[in-house]
Amino acid sequence: MTGSAAVAERIVVGYIPSPQGIAAFERAKDEAVRRSGRLVVVNTGHHGNYSDAAFATAEDLDAIDAELTSAGIEHEVQQPTAGRDAAEEILRVAEEQRATLIVIGIRYRSQVGKLLLGSTAQQVLLEAACPVLAVKESARSR
């Protein structure tokens, strides 16, 4: 280095209250500790829909905030409602934060399911400007 301080790692995790979302959050938390990084948790419903099952409750987000605070992890929890889809929000936040890593949860989907419904994970993997870590739920949680 040439006398300047190292830029802290910035990790963005796409979180939804599901086994895949929890697995992604846990791995992102581990990465933040390992890298001494800042963690940004992003939760959004389908197109910012508050009634969508992917939209975490205030209690869920408070628990995440408390867990990260207790672990001493510098963090921010965002729940954007601008009407973008989840992939667009994750990518927007990653760019805004100048993320060094994005962590997302993945699940198995049939070829027809991917064709009809698209894939948040696929869009993030293909469009991210930084490395993406795709995490499956553990076999124990299935």
Automatic annotation (TrEMBL):
Pfam families: Usp
Limits of the UspA domain: 9-136
Coiled coil: none
Signal sequence, renumbered to the chain: none
Sequence similarity: Belongs to the universal stress protein A family.
PANTHER family in the cross-refs: STRESS RESPONSE PROTEIN NHAX (PTHR46268), UNIVERSAL STRESS PROTEIN HP_0031 (PTHR46268:SF15)
Official protein name in the record: Universal stress protein
Organism of this sequence: Angustibacter luteus
